[in-house]
Specification:
By secondary structure, this protein is mostly helical. 52% of the residues lie in helices and 12% in strands. The protein is built from 5 helices and 4 strands, in the order H-E-H-E-H-E-H-H-E. Strands 1-4 form a two-stranded parallel ribbon. It has a two-stranded parallel sheet with strand order 2-3.
Length: 164
């Protein structure tokens, strides 16, 4: 059974890689005690910074489609944040004014969007590699082999670990 699951995952990641995707990963280490704001809001800001940076470097525009947050009012909050980032900038360590994200933030349920599903597959595998780095050597090899599909498309990856 694990071989079948790995085979399906392998085929899905190969299909994603065949489309020459670019991957931006932003995260907050799960053991951090971040209490200043909603961590999802912070991650959305960081991700928008990297998307804007990526699009700017290529003189392109970006349309952002994100997984639906758990609460509908979060969509309104994230869209308001984008408006603020456009006018005043993101603040923080790699602050920038967002100029390349067009329209608004669009939200789709993962079950209805192949693009969001692809992002989920990549995020799940990355998280697994970061957090399950000991144990069965066969699983470690399989994860590394799966990651090879997308590694050349990784534009940036950053996991914030407070105090590190």
């Amino acid at each position: 059974m694990p071989r079948a699951r790995i085979g399906i995952y392998d085929a899905a990641l190969a299909a994603i890689a065949d489309h020459h995707v670019h991957v931006i990963i932003e995260g907050i280490h799960p053991t951090s005690r971040l209490r200043m704001r909603d961590p999802h809001s912070i991650l959305m800001g960081w991700t928008l910074e990297r998307i804007d940076e990526f699009a700017c470097a290529r003189d392109e525009l970006a349309l952002v489609i994100a997984d639906e947050p758990g609460q509908v009012d979060q969509q309104t909050e994230y869209r308001a944040d984008l408006g603020y980032y456009r006018s005043a900038g993101t603040g923080g360590w790699k602050a920038r004014r967002i100029t390349r994200v067009v329209d608004t933030l669009h939200f789709a349920p993962s079950a209805s969007s192949r693009l969001v599903q692809a992002s989920d597959l990549i995020a799940f595998l990355f998280h697994r590699i970061q957090t399950k780095n000991t144990g069965d050597p066969r699983a470690l090899r399989a994860n590394a082999r799966l990651w090879e599909h997308v590694t050349t498309g990784v534009y940036s990856k950053h996991i914030w670990e407070p105090g590190v």
